[in-house]
Write the structure tokens for this entry.
Amino acid sequence: MRSLKSTKEDIKQFALDELNGEEESGFYDYGLSFDTVEDEDTGEVDYHRFQLSWGGPSEEIRFYPNGKIEYVFLDWFCGVGFDITGEDWAEWVHDRMLCC
């Protein structure tokens, strides 16, 4: 999927910039929001969402309490998720958004 590949390349560049000591990589200006999505019935955390784009199509990275990380592409009445758990770039985002 082209959008997943593009997101992966962007984030890898942010990580490389950070590794090279660039103080402002632009990562925290990337995407639209970071929020928590709760289960409507229980009120417990369903997942944390890093929303990258919105409006059909939209893209987001979801971080589940069990450690799973998923890239989700949503377009009108359908969507598809890709398990990216264990991908170095996905773990890098997790560490920036949820760590500490």
